[in-house]
Amino acid sequence: MKISIVVTQEEHFKYAQEICDTIESSALLRGTGIAKRTPEYIQKKMANGDAMIALADGKFAGFCYIESWQHGKFVAHSGLIVHPDYRSHGLAKKIKSKVFDYSLKRFPDAKIFGITTGLAVMKINSELGYKPVPFSELTTDPSFWAGCKTCTNFPILQSKENKMCLCTGMLYDPKEKQKTPPRHPFNEAVLNRLKKIKQALFLNKILSLFV
Q: What EC number(s) has UniProt assigned to this enzyme (predicted)?
């Protein structure tokens, strides 16, 4: 199976709706919160060359886009998705790695970050050199956090004043000397435990409101 991963252009607009649908259906299947995207927003990213798409014989296989915050001080990778027909082939890691390298070239001084509930994404990030960090080390740009409004967990984020949620924050700082393997190797058991602790804490907080 030959899959090409390329920087997007206007010719890829036709895939925008399918990308949005795949992102949403994947989140529903996992039972996780997600910030919804519109086809128009995805097309804007495509037109600006701020995204990469994976294609298999002209069919949509995967996608990820770039956002910059605070005048390029921070960069985030969002909407990483692989079509169900092309999963279990390591494609998500290939897309993420290409987007990561592309970001380093376009924004060499930017800190690259992300927030996610997905263990697979955390593992990929860790292998690239990201480390788990508190939200206080991420961008303070209100526009970024406003993007979480369509997520089912947004009330939790609001109640914590954008300092904590069910997502885990991860950060890559190009100014830190990187090692191979990464300084912060992925430990699925630890991150899974952290996720469960977060969920329990927030559940107890919500239940206390009704007591």
A: 2.3.1.-
For residue 169, give the 3-state DSSP assignment: strand
State how beta strands 111-116 and 74-82 pair. parallel
By three-state DSSP, how is residue 52 classified?
strand
SS3 of residue 35 by DSSP:
coil
CA 173/CA 113 separation, integer angstroms: 9
Q: For residue 141, give the amino acid letter.
A: D
**Which amino acid is present at 31?**
G
pTM score, two decimals? Answer: 0.78
Which residue type sits at 210?
A: F
Instruction: List own/partner pairs for 174-177 with CB under 8 A and 24 or more apart.
Output: 174/104, 174/108, 174/109, 174/110, 174/111, 174/112, 175/109
Phi, psi of 132 (to 5 degrees): -65, 135
Could you tell me if 81 and 62 are in contact, meaning their C-beta atoms sit under 8 angstroms apart? yes
